[in-house]
Each structure stands twice: as structure tokens, then as C-alpha cells.
Design goal:
GO terms for molecular function: methyltransferase activity. The chain is α/β, with parallel strands linked by helices. Helix content is 35%, strand content 27%. The chain has an eight-stranded mixed sheet with strand order 1-5-4-3-6-7-14-13, with helices on both faces. It has a four-stranded mixed sheet with strand order 2-12-9-8. A two-stranded antiparallel ribbon has the order 10-11. A hairpin with a 5-residue loop joins strand 13 (300-307) and strand 14 (313-320).
């Protein structure tokens, strides 16, 4: 019997470096209260986000996919097939399949995601679809320093779709981009999706879908705290609230306490006033010029930009100087 080629490899990048309990408590004790959006993505949260990307109101995913499909050969030429393709926040690895179709000679793909179970499941499925591609699945919080597996390719290109860059605060964004530039080294590339400023009604609808999937996604964060940190949140006592803050150029997501209440996490008590919120996510929007200025400050030069016809979304290829 012919041996089956083992082309998927699993790695732990920095799983033990994040103290979830302390980080969550610090956020809830702050004023205003907040929780990092990275904690959305347990297995259920990752599945709910995949559902969000298919909603009619949620334009970013389908618009980015349109750009990737329309310009895939041009994008593949910019990235170069002699590189290792590294995807931050890979999820189901759905978007990268479009690029892989245009990069048949690519030898190494490195999906990186904080949700280990979802990552390993997706990596296994993709490795079976592309038997000649070496898949190195890394379980890690890519916003912090993590161990990269040993790769054969000398040049690296990071694929960072979804406009996740907009979830960072401005100072965090700069730090993250500089860290990425250091990882890539001069000549390395960053292929990144960036959501653009547009009509406020479009933005508000995208984060308040009629089916309530985004609401469920936001509230699932409390379910995760109940399960993993022994908290006692009652989901019916909180509501989902999302809106575009024009002054700050961002969509904000919050969980709003519907009454005065005290919850516990382990043996720690956290008091909420009626109407008080937990700020769970920001999603900054940019003009192309604004993003180029940020990238230039962080060690990148813009090589190419692709947009849809409505100029709702952009895909940038940046190179480390």
C-alpha cells in the first residue's frame, strides 16, 4: 500500500502566554469596562463569525472575496510563489483558497489562529484539498510574539484579510505592524484587507443584522466567560449595541447591562449600573491615503492597491523597506 504523504503539521505558538483570567478582570474593573475582541473566538464564536460573513448586510467578506477573485492572478504575482504564505487569523481558511488557486507552485502555507480546535479542523481539511502544499498550523495569539515553525522558504508573505487591522487601537496598530515588519524582514510582503470609510447607514447595518447573528456573536462572549472562568453572567440581562462613531472613524460594539446587577467571576464581584456597557470591539475605517501613511510609519511601502467598484473595501500589498 502506498504511504499517504503527511503534509499538515501542528504547532503551538504562544498558547500559555496570555493570562485570560487576569486580562478579563482588568478590563471589567476598568472605567469604561472593556474586553479584547480576541476573546470572541472560542469554537462557537468562530462558527458564529463565519455565519456573520455570509449575511446580506455584512459587506466586508463578500466584497473582499470579489476583489480576491477578480485580481487573484495580479495579487499572486505581487506575493510571489517562492514565498511561504502566512495567514493571521485564518479561521476556516476560506479566503486563502482563492489565492492558492492562483499560486499552484506555492510550497508552504502557515495558518495562525487563536481558536485551536477550529484551526486544526480547518488545516486538516485544507491539507487534503492541496496534497502538495505543506500546511503548518500554528495555534497562537498572533497579536503577541509567537514561535514561527521552521520553514524552507526564505521569503515570507503575511496574508491578513478581513480588515481585522481595524480592530486595533491606533497605538496597537502601529506596534503590530512594526512587529510584523520585523518578522518578515526587508523584502517580505504583507497582503492586507482594509475597510474603507463609507455611508454610515451601510456601516450600521453591517453590525446590526436583522437575523441577530451579530447579537448572538457578541453575547457568546459572556457564555465563554461563564464556561471558562466560572462567571455567572445571565445573557438575558445584557443587550447588543453597535453604532458608527463618526468622530473617531470606527464602528463600536458594546454589551449593555439592562439593570443594576453584580456578577461574579470566580470569587471576584463586578458591579454594573443599568445602561453601563462592556466595550467589546472597535472596527476602524480608513481612507486609502490614511492607511498608507500608517504603513509608512511602520516600515512598509505600498506596492499595489485593489478595490471594488464602489470603493467600499481595499486590498493592499505592502513590502518591508
Amino acid at each position: 500500500m502506498k504511504a499517504v504523504k503527511q503534509n499538515v503539521h501542528y504547532h503551538v505558538g504562544n498558547e500559555n502566554e496570555t493570562d485570560m483570567y487576569s486580562e478579563i478582570l482588568n478590563g471589567l474593573k476598568s472605567s469604561p469596562k472593556s474586553i479584547s475582541p480576541k476573546y470572541f473566538y472560542d469554537k462557537k464564536g468562530s462558527e458564529l463569525f463565519e455565519s456573520i460573513t455570509m449575511l446580506r448586510e455584512y459587506y466586508p467578506t463578500r466584497t473582499e472575496l470579489f476583489i480576491l477573485k477578480k485580481y487573484k492572478n495580479d495579487i499572486a504575482n505581487a506575493a510571489g510563489t517562492d514565498s511561504a504564505l502566512i495567514e493571521f487569523g485564518s479561521g476556516s481558511s476560506e479566503k486563502v483558497r482563492t489565492l492558492l488557486e492562483a499560486m499552484p507552485d506555492l510550497k508552504e502555507y502557515v495558518p495562525i489562529d487563536i481558536s485551536k480546535d477550529f484551526l486544526y479542523q480547518s488545516a486538516r481539511a485544507l491539507s487534503m484539498e492541496y496534497p502538495d502544499l505543506n500546511v503548518h498550523a500554528v495555534s497562537a495569539d498572533y497579536t503577541a510574539k509567537f514561535a514561527m515553525p521552521k520553514l524552507e522558504s526564505k521569503r515570507k508573505v503575511v496574508f491578513f484579510p478581513g480588515s481585522t487591522i481595524g480592530n486595533f487601537e491606533p497605538h496597537e496598530m502601529e506596534e503590530f505592524l512594526k512587529q510584523t515588519a520585523d518578522q518578515l524582514k526587508p523584502g517580505g510582503g504583507l497582503l492586507i484587507g482594509v475597510d474603507l470609510k463609507k455611508d454610515h447607514a451601510v456601516l450600521n447595518a453591517a453590525y446590526n443584522d436583522k437575523k441577530g447573528v451579530t447579537r448572538e456573536f457578541n453575547l457568546n462572549l459572556l457564555n465563554r466567560l461563564n464556561r471558562e472562568l466560572l462567571a455567572n453572567f445571565k445573557l438575558e440581562d445584557f443587550s447588543h449595541h453597535a453604532f458608527y462613531n463618526a468622530e473617531k472613524g470606527r464602528v463600536e460594539m458594546h454589551l449593555v447591562s439592562l439593570k443594576n446587577q453584580v456578577i461574579t467571576i470566580g470569587d471576584v464581584q463586578i458591579a454594573f449600573q443599568e445602561g453601563e456597557t462592556i466595550h467589546t470591539e472597535n472596527s476602524y475605517k480608513f481612507t486609502i491615503e490614511e492607511f498608507h501613511q500608517i504603513a509608512a510609519m511602520c516600515g512598509f511601502k505600498s506596492k499595489k492597491v485593489w478595490c471594488d467598484e464602489r470603493q467600499w473595501f481595499s486590498m493592499h500589498y505592502l513590502e518591508v523597506i
